[in-house]
């Protein structure tokens, strides 16, 4: 690595600069390089984030098919969505069911696995990496196809359940079960939050557990009174992150549903329906309205989580926050 | 519980968990090597003989585009994204972590807020922009945004890492007469290497797996990526094509698996620290 050694001797024009008037000069001197560093980010933030946000808000009040100019329709998209479109509500229901089931299961498993790994001496690093692997592969189309096959007629899961006397038939073809194929695929990826939980667990001072043990606290009591409060900021972080991600799940939904949200719209996830309305049916205005309602929903839920966090998230370094 | 059980119980549980967790991957590999008539009829993972012809069929690819081409296309996009993200995110991160400028707090807050922004809100206008620029059905919409630091997650990750670096080295570089750019390039950037590697690996894997963006922007089969090519199997329900289909799936996850084995230290560490310092 070439670090300090490459710092060339000071250039003449720099050293001959007058020393005084330091304060204002230095600040001005530091200003312009900062904007140069930030130029790519600022262009991206303006052209690919801020302007598109404004445009999609405007489009959500129009009828637009990408070819003809947008045509202002006021609140019609929103009205249609909320009062006249049963498939919209179907997609909301499916997505909410998925988020409410998958996120707690995934986080619960992640916490359990993190505690298990913490109690391992040797082999912890190995298991940590191995449990993490599905989180990298899980978003791929390949794995989604594997999942579809495992839960289909003749797939391992249906066969094993069948041999135990539980005859489910194909999960993928069953409107009541198809969504759980996606849920289980998500839960399978518990490694990512687990790694964060494990790092959090390792930061809890052993002295706290010793003190609790001296006071006669058993394992469960230690978990409730030491682990949970000390880990609550990490739980909160994972909860917000997973919730936001889960609302936007797409690839597994696409693969499991055969690309169309089937059977009987039971896997018509929000983003899948948004894609269908916007890009297959060319109702860009409608899709933009859906995107804005998604943003508002995620914003409101995040806000509620932040509000309630005051009563259950414990920060040891209170003044630092 | 006697002490021996207590010691072995966690190990047994971890091993059992590992087997369940890895089963789908083992199944994927096994199925890719099974003869067509064994796929559904036998739960046995081990094929009666290894059907390598699944792979030769898979190599022919989809709609006349060979797998080698599909893999190359994926590599091109993921490689471009890695270069773009590492460059643009480290530039922005250096400004946020080390320089003073007006509106710094506001800009930083905006950057952090975009972490939570669902991509769909900007999706349609971005599509319109790229459409107007004649860039639909090219790789530009997939690569260009990465050069503009649009992935706030990585900016944030590198900012957090740079903030943890000691300032002394940078200050001595300053005293030696280095400007901001020299300091960034020859002091801060080399020191930030772990966070840049994490950025590079995650960018590679996420771009490689990103099905949605590729699907809306790419149309010509010869421009397809390996992930997009797998789409043609999605609406197919017959199990007769399982062998070649999963052979192709194996080929498509192979680069991720390789990356994982080589870089898993950075991956797991990067994930853990980025999560905690939040």
Task: Give short descriptive properties of this protein.
heterodimer; A: mainly alpha; two-stranded antiparallel ribbon; disordered N terminus; B: 278 residues; mainly alpha; MetI-like fold; 69% helix
Strands across the major sheet of chain A, in which order? 1-2
What fold name goes in the CATH topology slot of chain A?
MetI-like fold
Low-confidence stretches of chain A: 1-21
Largest sheet of chain A: 2 strands, antiparallel
Query: How many individual β-strands of chain B?
Result: 0
**Cα separation of the termini of chain B:** 40 Å
Radius of gyration of chain A, in Å, reads 26 Å
Structural class of chain B: mainly alpha
Helix content of chain B: 55-70%
- Overall geometry of chain A comes to globular
Q: In CATH terms, what is the fold-level topology of chain B? A: MetI-like fold
Indicate the CATH class of chain B.
Mainly Alpha
Helix tally of chain A equals: 14
Largest interface: A-B, 107 and 102 residues
- Give the integer mean of the pLDDT values of chain B: 88
Give the full name of the CATH homologous superfamily of chain A.
MetI-like
In terms of DSSP E residues, the strand content of chain B is under 5%
CATH architecture of chain A: Orthogonal Bundle
Provide a concise account of the structure shown.
Chain A is mostly helical and 321 residues long.
Written account of the structure:
The complex is a heterodimer of chains A (321) and B (278). By secondary structure, chain A is mainly alpha-helical. Chain A is built from 14 helices and 2 strands; from the N terminus they run ααββαααααααααααα. Chain A has one domain (86-320): MetI-like (MetI-like fold). In chain A, strands 1-2 form a two-stranded antiparallel ribbon. Chain B has 278 residues and is mainly α. Chain B has a single domain (65-241, 252-276), classed as MetI-like (MetI-like fold, Orthogonal Bundle). In chain B, 69% of the residues lie in helices and 0% in strands. Chain B contains 13 helices and no strands. Chain B has helices spanning 3-31, 53-59, 67-98, 104-114, 120-132, 140-143, 152-163, 168-175, 180-191, 193-209, 211-217, 226-230, 242-276. In chain B, helix 8 (168-175) packs antiparallel against helix 9 (180-191) and helix 10 runs antiparallel to helix 13 (242-276). The two termini of chain B are 40 Å apart. The chains are: A mainly alpha (321), B mainly alpha (278).
